[in-house]
Amino acid sequence: MKDTIWNVQQPAGDWQQTDATGFVGRRHEIAEVRRILARTRLLTLTGAGGVGKTRLARRVSELLPQRYRDGVRLVELATIDDEDLLAPAVAASLGIHDRTPDLVALLTEHLADKQLLLVLDNCEHLLGACARLVHQLLRGTSRLQILATSRQSLGVYGEQVLPVPSLPIPQPGDSTRDIARRDAVRLFAERAATIRPGFLVNAANAQAVARLAWRLDGIPLAIELAAVRLRTTSVEDLVNELDERLEVAAEAGSGRLARHQTLWATMEWSFGLCSSGEQRLWERLSMFAGGVDLESAEAVCPGQGLAREDVLDLMMGLVDKSILSGDQHGTGVRYRMLETIRAYGREQLSALDAEALRERYIGHYRRLADRVRVDRAEPDQIDRMRALKLELPNVRVALDLCFGRPGDAPAGLEIASELWANWLVAGALGEGRHWLKRGLALVPGSSVSRAMGLWADGLLAYYQGDPVAAADARECLALARQLKDEAALAFAVQLSGVAALCEGDIEGGLALLEEARTLHWARGDIHAVGVTLYLAAIFAATMSPDRAAEYGEELVMLCEKRNAALFRTYALYGVAMARWEQGEWQQAEAGMREVAAFWGAADDRWGLPNCLEVLAWTAGARGRHERAARLLGAAHLLWEAVACSPMRLRLHARSHQECAERARRALGARAFTAAFRDGARLELSRAVAYALEEP
């Protein structure tokens, strides 16, 4: 959830003043947070939805980075509904983009000596999982501090809790000047000025504004929603409408706490002021955990009385009413709801409407998964990477929906399988395998979906050096032969070739990959041909570098012909690995530098540790052992991030060990360790910049 940034902009000398950074009020709360964090390791900000917990946490994190040597990291949990994805989300905020069987242990080790503030935002829907994770992290570290926001406390030993109150409201007997200085009024005045330029709190309207702030309990989100009505009504009429709405809500009763009831009643009021089309769209857009662009809204939301051609105008109506906010992303706009508004929309969605929406949502994200695949030799591979990054929270919703019903599980398995290369380049092999394993558990028996799920899981497992990959390969091949499906058989033979190469069978493995390439060509799947060439180049490099180089060079030509820039760098990587094994380390270094520059700009989290690893070897070959140790340290941090190790990969194990041993002998154990640690402390951008320096 992203709280609105409360910002007051008024003419100099007027009563509604803000601090220099544009943050309205909360000075007492900010001071309290700073005071408590000076003496505790866990502080939880609690309060009702819409009260501003997130904004307060963000404001504090902006003010405190100098206190934390290793910085402040924010983890947004509102878009995560699966407890199994909590630790990966925390890891991703720290630059660790994968899961291990015990990711919490890896996180604890990573944070052991860090002086860092971890901000966990919106914990309430994952309360038990958050409490367990926080307890383990604090127990295993000495300097880590955690600032959490939640509607209730975590209940962890040593936790300090700071309830976040509503904004101060006017008091009986306040003068016009005093009313205007109250933070709830300052916020209303700022929002009103964006709707009615020049709006000021003055003697004529001060009492009405004070009554409004009092009626809304000073809740920031409620004030934001109410202020939108100034487009069509006066402050006095607005207050009268609000009085009527809240009195009706109070008479009806809901069992909610008073302030939560006030916010809910305000949203009901806002909902009632929307047209029927806007109401339907609000309900349906609440499905999108990660925000939505116009294309997706038009694909998923129409139906049951809502026409596709009306979606844009209705979205603009919701923006005008502050139900949606728009953020520019590249050439387009992405629309988001505050989590409290989204939760309200989900409550209004009827069962019948939800069922139809569910089918359209899954169908849309099945098509999107196919469209954003990066394992295709096309010019827009980087755009596809970025598109999935934006859509990932929504893809997770689609996967959860699929795996929530046995009949839809094959669709979920297909989505997870199609995104195998996206999981790889994002360094999220573990998350990919998490979804694949869920799907495989729900899709037993004989089906193409299961065969391709086994193929994707097996391939990612081989990248991680996980021996379970061999079992996936055997079952995948047996199943494809049983099904007599040409596509599944081609991929199964491909995976079997990788399995043979990893077991040291160079001739058998390459023969299988050649067979897979022939099968893919026969089907006209040039993209799968490219993947097969890449797999042959990298998995054969240590055993037959000459043949590996040929495969890599063939793939370079294919990629250049198709202008597939990302795929081309993977081909160059394969060629460079072959050159290293051939003893041509200068050529290997030149190739890796080109690849590192591209992967650094593209933020390829799987490729970068591989690349820095090889550049460490070439530095050692030059006799630059201190540089080699630093690069090994930088690569080590990135290997940890993807839950892998060069010692688990046949491609790297021997050269990694030789490089480390030579550097340790040349520098001495103490100097080697110091240089290695220096490298491990480098942030990603600095590590890439160091790798690209002239050797």
Structure, explained:
This protein has about 700 residues and is mainly α. About 65% of the residues lie in helices and about 5% in strands. The protein contains 33 helices and eight strands. The strands form two sheets. Strands 2-3-4-1-5 form a five-stranded parallel sheet, sandwiched between helices. A hairpin with a 2-residue loop joins strand 7 (about 325-330) and strand 8. Residues about 1-20 have low confidence and may be disordered.
Give a quick summary of the entry:
The chain has 695 residues and is mostly helical. 63% of the residues lie in helices and 5% in strands.
Approximately what portion of the residues adopt beta-strand conformation? 5-15%
Instruction: Write down how many β-strands occur, each being a DSSP E stretch of 2 or more residues.
Output: 8
The profile of the biggest β sheet is: 5 strands, parallel
Q: What is the distance, rounded to the nearest whole angstrom, between the alpha carbons of the first and last residues?
A: 45 Å
Strand order of the largest sheet: 2-3-4-1-5
Quickly list its features.
695 residues; mainly alpha; five-stranded parallel sheet; three-stranded antiparallel sheet; 33 helices; 8 strands; disordered N terminus
Would you spell out the secondary-structure blueprint of this structure?
Blueprint: H1 27-37, E1 42-46, H2 53-63, E2 72-76, H3 86-93, H4 103-111, E3 117-121, H5 127-140, E4 145-150, E5 160-163, H6 176-181, H7 183-195, H8 206-215, H9 220-227, H10 235-252, H11 258-273, H12 276-285, E6 292-293, H13 294-300, H14 311-320, E7 325-329, E8 332-336, H15 339-348, H16 351-371, H17 381-403, H18 409-418, H19 420-425, H20 429-442, H21 448-463, H22 468-483, H23 486-502, H24 506-523, H25 526-539, H26 545-562, H27 565-581, H28 585-602, H29 607-621, H30 625-641, H31 653-667, H32 669-680, H33 684-692
Parallel strand pairs: 1-4, 1-5, 2-3, 3-4
Antiparallel strand pairs: 6-8, 7-8
Helix pairs in contact: 4-5, 7-9, 8-10, 9-11, 10-11, 12-14, 12-15, 16-17, 16-18, 17-18, 18-20, 18-21, 20-21, 21-22, 21-23, 22-23, 23-24, 23-25, 24-25, 25-26, 25-27, 26-27, 27-28, 27-29, 28-29, 28-33, 29-30, 29-31, 30-31, 30-32, 30-33, 31-32
